[in-house]
Write a structure and sequence with these properties.
This protein is of the alpha/beta class. It has a single domain (35-53, 78-225), classed as Rossmann fold (3-Layer(aba) Sandwich), CATH 3.40.50.300. The chain is built from six helices and ten strands, in the order E-E-E-H-E-E-H-E-H-H-H-E-H-E-E-E. The protein has a six-stranded mixed beta sheet with strand order 6-7-8-3-9-10, with helices on both faces. Strands 2-1-4-5 form a four-stranded antiparallel beta sheet, with helices on one face. Strand 7, helix 6 and strand 8 (194-197) form a beta-alpha-beta unit. Helix 3 (104-113) runs parallel beside helix 5 (143-155), helix 4 (121-127) crosses helix 5 (143-155) and helix 5 (143-155) runs parallel beside helix 6 (173-190). The termini are far apart. The model has no long low-confidence stretch (mean pLDDT 95). Bound molecules: adenosine-5'-triphosphate (ATP). Residues 15, 22, 24, 42, 44-50 line the site of adenosine-5'-triphosphate. It comes from Hominiventricola aquisgranensis. Keywords: ATP-binding, Nucleotide-binding, Transport.
Length: 235
């Protein structure tokens, strides 16, 4: 068994051609290891979302190799990539993206219904502390609660990797801390690695490793020997 879940070697993503070519990602190499919590930090335009989209199979690299097990994501067929997104990856977005006409439980069940081997919606809603609110619609819930539902929706599939794009970006400090704590709990209970983009450098203190990005490159990887607990953060 390999000691990584995803491994990128010289991964690039560019848009356009000739003089107008934009290098969103410029030859990055990295590994995402089992059970680790990775925070990706960097200024706007540094390539964070591009990297996350490649890891999630929502976009394909222009060059280099991105391996999940023995499979290069860039060489997968559309059908294989679709299964990868459905069965392997859990996504959490800044603005939750819940379906407004479905209850919390129905939002979660929609995800479990398309993925074989999923957990039960009741179980994961309990895990995220929303057992009492599962029949509520998104509009009847706070932003923090909606993000909890979106985390439940991501983990009900038993993902092999959880990807989060600014999961606290739309939340106040109290709810942000609760979401960080929940993501750490999820990592501990499900055991999947978590990769999260943030603009908040404080969040990096709970990470096992921090990827610092600039101009389409990972310019530094920092390993935290003693990651903080969510309760210790000064948000
Ligand atoms: N579809 C696209 N076509 C052309 N250029 C793009 C496209 N997507 C991203 N880019 C460019 O690639 C670079 C990296 O963008 P990316 O969204 O990955 O940065 P980011 O670090 O996530 O930024 P932010 O923090 O603002 O979300 C930027 O210069 C961006 O303008």
């Amino acid at each position: 068994m390999s000691d990584w879940v995803l491994k990128g070697t010289d991964v690039s993503r560019w848009y356009g051609d000739g003089e107008v070519r934009v290098h969103a990602l410029n030859g990055v190499s990295f590994e995402i290891c089992p059970g680790e919590f990775v925070v990706v930090l960097g200024p706007s335009g540094s390539g964070k979302s591009t990297l996350l989209n490649l890891l999630g199979g929502m976009d394909s690299a222009s060059g280099g190799e991105l391996l999940y097990g023995e499979k290069n994501l860039s060489e997968m067929t559309a059908l294989e990539l679709s299964s990868y997104r459905r069965d392997v990856v859990g996504f959490v977005f800044q603005f939750f993206h819940l379906i407004p006409t479905l209850t919390a439980k129905e939002n979660v069940e929609l995800a479990s219904s398309i993925t074989p081997g999923s957990r039960s919606a009741d179980e994961v809603l309990e895990m995220v502390g929303l057992a009492e609110r599962k029949e509520h619609f998104p509009a009847q819930m706070s932003g923090g609660e909606q993000q909890r539902v979106s985390i439940a929706r991501a983990i009900v599939k038993n993902p092999s990797i959880l990807l989060c794009d600014e999961p606290t970006g739309a939340l106040d400090s109290k709810n942000s801390l609760a979401v960080v704590k929940l993501l750490l709990d999820v990592r501990d209970q499900i055991g999947c690695p978590v990769v999260t983009i943030t603009h908040n450098a404080e969040m990096a203190k709970v990470a096992d490793r921090v990827f610092y990005m600039k101009d389409g490159q990972i310019i530094r990887v920092e390993k935290n020997e003693h990651p903080l607990k969510a309760e210790e953060l000064l948000w």
